[in-house]
Write a structure and sequence with these properties.
266 residues; alpha/beta; six-stranded mixed β-sheet; four-stranded antiparallel β-sheet
Length: 266
């Protein structure tokens, strides 16, 4: 049996007497998009936090390509290939959109130990690095074009509306090029016109078939369209796992976990 790209084993976290994530064991393969759904308070974002290392687990393990990451903090998990959108990434409000993505590209390359690291001469000589690595700047501009922000490349992040900031965070995550992409409600707060841009990007990542994508999303039309598999959490426990049509059609999932009324039998 092949080793899954990402796996959690009995992953658990307790806050006092409350068990927010309760012994969740799940494996995720490269080339798949898994939607993680459930009602508010089900433990979805907490589960993401445990995987990405933003929250220490009370019990259990997280493995990437078979290697145990459980003792590693979030930055080192990122270097190993876990990419977390919207919480892992941090925008610099006073820098431009282009500068934000440029720094993400630079962080990726330096994390891989490639040539062209930061020069330290009484501190970091950012301007020299910018001049030396025009290819990083070109990649950053291309990523902004993919999220439809090329016209706003020179604007400071603080001047961008919320929807554009979320698109910029997707660009930063793409710049890191992780093995695992973790999207936590990527379309939340976006206008109707902006949503298709992000969905197209996620679909393109899925079509590469060499990355694993985890998606927390409340919009069931998005889940149905994009996912290969749905995992349902409730009260911190994994209660359903399977193909989208089967999971969505399950009466117990419709009633208790997705907030939908089950259809009466004919």
């Amino acid at each position: 049996m092949s080793t899954p790209l990402l796996a959690t084993e009995s992953l658990t976290v307790r806050f006092g007497g409350h068990v927010a994530v309760d012994r969740v064991t799940c494996a995720f393969e490269a080339g798949t998009l898994t939607a993680i759904v459930g009602p508010n308070g089900a433990g979805k974002t907490t589960y993401f936090n445990l995987i990405s290392g933003q929250l220490p687990a009370s019990e259990g393990r997280v493995r990437l390509q078979g290697q145990d990451l459980s003792a590693l903090p979030a930055p080192l998990r990122t270097r190993r290939g876990l990419g977390r959108a919207f919480q892992l990434t941090q925008l610099f409000p006073n820098l431009t959109a282009l500068e934000n993505v440029r720094l993400a590209v630079q962080a990726r390359e330096q994390g891989r130990g490639r040539e062209g690291g930061l020069r330290l001469v009484g501190g970091i000589d950012f301007f020299r690095v910018w001049l030396d690595r025009r290819d990083w700047l070109d990649e950053a501009q291309a990523l902004l074009a993919q999220v439809r922000l090329e016209a706003k490349a020179g604007l400071p992040v603080a001047a961008l509306p919320h929807g554009d900031q979320r698109k910029l965070e997707v660009a930063l995550l793409m710049a890191l090029d992780p093995l695992v992409y973790m999207f936590d409600e990527p379309t939340a707060g976006m206008s109707v016109d902006e949503v298709p841009v992000v969905l197209e990007l996620i679909r393109a990542l899925k079509d590469r078939r060499d990355r694993c994508i985890l998606l927390v999303e409340h919009k069931m039309d998005v889940v149905s369209e994009l996912s290969d598999r749905i995992v349902v959490l409730h009260n911190g426990q994994l209660v359903a796992d399977g193909e989208p049509a089967a999971v969505i059609a399950s009466p117990v999932v419709q009633q208790a976990y997705l907030g939908m009324a089950a259809e009466e039998p004919a």
